[in-house]
Amino acid sequence: MNNINWRGIDLNLLVAFSALMETRSVTKAATKLSIGQSAMSHNLSRLRALLDDPLFERRGHQMIATEKAIELIPVVEHILQLITSEILQPDKFSAQDYQGTLRIGLTDYAELLFAPALFDAIRKAAPHSQLSFCNVDRNNYQQATEAQKIDLIIGSMTNLPHEFDSQYLYTEDHVCLFDTKATGLSSPIDLARYIQTPQALVSPDGKLMTNVDNQLQQQGFQRHIAVGSSSFLTIRHLLSGRNLLCVVSTLMAKLDVFNDELSQCRPPVDIPDFDINMLWLRRNSNHPRLEWLRQCVGEAVTLRLEELRKTH
């Protein structure tokens, strides 16, 4: 195996061999492959050198295959068929028959909003598959995608590196969420009441300061962040019955995961909207299974958005 001259092996030579076996003529084989006769003659010379066999011997106007060439016919045809069917034209993906694992990376936000809908949609289309939700954020998604072999990600990641491709899903905005009785607040909230009320912060990276604080400082104001957590569920628990206010995404505020009745209104500060995207490794863009998964996930997210926007 170590003595094989791999640099001399060209798959085009197998195609040339197949054409020569079929036509038994250098001229006809060249015509079949749309190349010049001299090029075909060169291919035959290379094949003879590579296989150490004449392969074809001329007798009158016909080329007679050697025993070596005849032995190679089924092998070469099998290799060419394998390349055609399994590499160049892989089988279409059948979700109904798939029994592998589908791995979807979700931020805390995306998991709360879409995990049930994604499970239902994928389970219906691919009932024999396994589904793994992997927690990711904008700081670790690149490493997590490779380490955990994640198929696609849903989140607000921006400025993607070259190895990732993406599809826009929707744009999200913000609301203030609070317990009216515990805070004494009512909608709308002016800037003075907003600053005076202790605030909770959903912070994936643990920082207790955002661009909102920078904006307030430029205006000569400062808010008090009383507590932060990477988990929206933790913050949501804290808001009920406490003098706390939190700015959250509008769709998160609509989640029906608690029995409490928190109030919401537009923030009195300018907080930029953010885009939610689906992203995946660019090198896997054309894989049939992942093409199907992206379509399935995109449709499930769209239906879930319609449900959420109809509430409240």
Automatic annotation (TrEMBL):
GO molecular function, one term: DNA binding
Superkingdom, natural source: Bacteria
Protein name per its UniProtKB record: LysR family transcriptional regulator
InterPro entries (UniProt xref): LysR-type_TF, LysR_HTH_N, LysR_subst-bd, WH-like_DNA-bd_sf, WH_DNA-bd_sf
Domain HTH lysR-type: 9-66
Family designation: Belongs to the LysR transcriptional regulatory family.
Keyword terms of this UniProt record: DNA-binding, Transcription, Transcription regulation
The keyword tRNA processing appears for this protein: no
Keyword field contains Transcription: yes
Pfam families per record: HTH_1, LysR_substrate
